[in-house]
Structure formats: structure tokens, C-alpha cells
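Q: How would the C-alpha cells look for this protein?
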Amino acid sequence: MGFCCRGFAWGGWMGWGGGWIGLLLNVALFVGVLILLGLAAVWIARRRLAAGEITVAEFEDVRDRLRG
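A: Here is the predicted structure in C-alpha cell form.
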């Protein structure tokens, strides 16, 4: 083995082997990225609305699609 894998092997988290903590951290990271992408989309749509590039109806359509 090399020094690069000591305690930080693939699937491991600080030498604990991942487990539930690694799973929870991965899920939290994934959900956080999705939330940030949604917020960014709304922020971009608001900027386009303020600049007059889209109408209020188009903005509401984007917002409603993001809400699900």
C-alpha cells in the first residue's frame, strides 16, 4: 500500500469506513446542491424579470416549475 490510502481509503471517512455518517453526509451534500441550484434559478429569473427580458407570467411559470 502507499501512504495515500492510509486512513482515507475509498469509501472511508476519517478512518471510520463510511457507514451511516458517510451516507448522511452524502445525502446532505446532494440535497444542499439541489437547493442551491433551485435558488440560483430563481435568482437568475428575478434578474431577467427586473431587466425586462421576461414577463411576469414567464417568471411565475419558472417559479411554479421549480416548486414542483
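The CA atoms of residues 38 and 66 lie 7 Å apart.

The chain has a mean pLDDT of 80.

Upvote if useful.
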